[in-house]
Amino acid sequence: MHGGMNLDNKIQEGFILSLDGDIAHVRVAPNADCDNCGQCNTVHVELYAVNKVNAKIGQKVRFVMPDDNMLKIAFMAFIVPMISLILGIYLGNSAASSLALNTTAGSFIGAILFLALSLLFVYNYDKNFKNNKKNFPHIIDIVR
After folding, report:
1. What is the pLDDT of residues 45-91, one digit of tens each?
2. Angle at the Cα of 78 from the Cα atoms of 75 and 84, rounded to 5 degrees
3. In Å, what is the CA distance from 73 to each residue of 31, 81, 105?
4. Is the model's pLDDT at 34 over the cut of 80?
């Protein structure tokens, strides 16, 4: 019924602010968890969601947030740059040793080079991730 969406996720509600094809701009009211936190003065959150139920502007809708990507995002944001940095240090040191150059400089240059390449990779991954509709929240129902 819901296109293979995992409905074990917490279902949230919001109002449609605008539409752009099958993408809806949704205003979400803070939930009880936000009220209990008190760390910010957020009145509402706005997000983009896939609108497969043809909801109209102003309608209240229910949607699910895909959370199966959180591990992938954390890995890309933190682990890939760290591994690249360590790999750059090792390969820079090895290259400098075999060329009879200063190993400290080789390690430093390798670290900077590999870290820059990993950040470029993460930037491109993030851009593609944001443009992939399967990573958007999905509207599953119109509240009547």
Report:
1. 888 899 989 999 999 999 988 776 778 888 899 999 999 999 999 99
2. 95
3. 24, 12, 32
4. no
Overall fold of domain 11-66+136-142: OB fold (Dihydrolipoamide Acetyltransferase, E2P) (2.40.50)
pLDDT for 4 equals 45
Statement: residue 36 has pLDDT above 90: no
**Residues paired with residue 144 on neighbouring β-strands, in sequence order:** none
Residues 6 or more apart whose CB falls under 8 angstroms from that of 105 comprise 96
83-89 long-range Cβ contacts below 8 angstroms, 24+ apart: 83/118, 84/114, 84/115, 84/117, 84/118, 85/111, 85/114, 85/115, 85/118, 87/114, 88/112, 88/113, 88/114, 88/115
- Where exactly are the structural domains of the chain? 11-66+136-142, 70-131
